[in-house]
Amino acid sequence: MNQNMSRSQFLTFAASAGAASLLTSLESMVAVNDIKKIRVAIIGCGSVSNRYIPHLQSSPSIEIVSLCDIRHERAVAQNEQYNVKAATYADIDSLLKGVPFDMMVTLTDMQKHGELNKKALLSGKHVWSEKPMANTYAEGKALLELAKSKNLKLWGAPAVVNSPQFAFMSRCIQEGKLGRVASAHGQYGHTGPGWSSFFYEKNGGSMPDLGVYNMATLTGLLGPAKSVMAMLSIVNPERMIDEKGKIKVEEEDNAHILMDHDSGIISHVMCGFNFFDPHGHEAKGQQLHSIQIYGDKGNMRMIGYDWETNGVILDDSWEKPGQLHEKETGGYVWQEGATKVAESIVNKTEPLINVEHALHVLEIIEAARKSSASGMRIPLVSTFKWPVV
After folding, report:
1. Do residue 64 and residue 118 come from a single domain?
2. The domain containing residue 240 runs over which residues?
3. 171 shares a domain with 148
4. Of 29, 135, 178, 365, which residue is least crowded by CB atoms under 10 Å?
């Protein structure tokens, strides 16, 4: 400001600044309440963005306006590869000060999710976060409270509840086709990623990367878990990583988790980075079941992984073999979460994906670590609206 500015000039300046501030506030309200096309910023331009960017671009309700990565060249490369025509940034502070946007999609190393999501919410942005949404349940709960206080939307991956296979299994359970449900099992694993070290560092591990899918599926089908018992281990204490060479593994690469869903129902999740599978990390053509649920009148087996399933076998007859249902995906893909929630803002609808569900799964992961360390059964306090479908 000019130090020699007169009183009348100052009052004129202050009035105009106040009007500008009011106009900005009104525009923000319109952006939240009457948005026609949502502007999206993506932070984290690594491998996962190769699936997210095209899917977001496929929606007429979404415009990607910014790409951000601490390795700025990756943001530039994705901008060119997918012809996004977006602004690019090297850090979140520059992103938040740059081209205006409505929702941030967080695809960075999982250890940074909570910190980045908080900055976005404080700046008035809706947030879709890849899993997990934070490093601890307390941090995740604080994020949700912050979002609510600012009338913002917050969601966390995965989007497994969107699949027609999940819907079919949920209906079968609610309609009593399995009789009294007793037990369930989920499994997901491979021999471990080699492209980044964060999977094996503190607050990484097989549970927030892999087990999170099965936890979301089983709690979504059977109801919130009431308590957790677990045994975790590190089978391979050293890993070779493309970018760093040999590193020490700090979090579990092998996990077995028991969940009590009340009413006598117990489920089990096993996940790890030491599971040989000839179908590989992408599980192309996987025909083995990853989710199975047993009742006293029938059982169901989800074919393929729950994030990219190939159908459900329902076995409820003594005379006939199990039948394959919902073989088609119905358009569902695992990377659709950000697109679906962004469209829900535009269309003023409620998606099946629920932030309280993601927060519940985060508490399960934390409780599993406490249980393994103490040998104790850990009660849970979180819950979510159920049934999902």
Report:
1. yes
2. 160-332+350-379
3. no
4. 29
CA 326 to the chain's CA centroid: 24
Report the C-alpha gap between 201 and 268 in whole angstroms.
25
Longest alpha-carbon distance in the chain: 95
pLDDT score recorded for residue 280: 63
Number of domains in the chain: 2
Query: Quick one: pLDDT at residue 7?
Result: 37
- Specify whether 261 is located in the same domain as 285: yes
Domain boundary pick from 156, 180, 206: 156
- Map tokens 């003023």 to a residue: 348
pLDDT above 70 for 53:
yes
340 within domain boundaries: no
Answer whether 49's CB lies under 8 Å from 106's CB. Answer: no
pTM (2 d.p.): 0.90
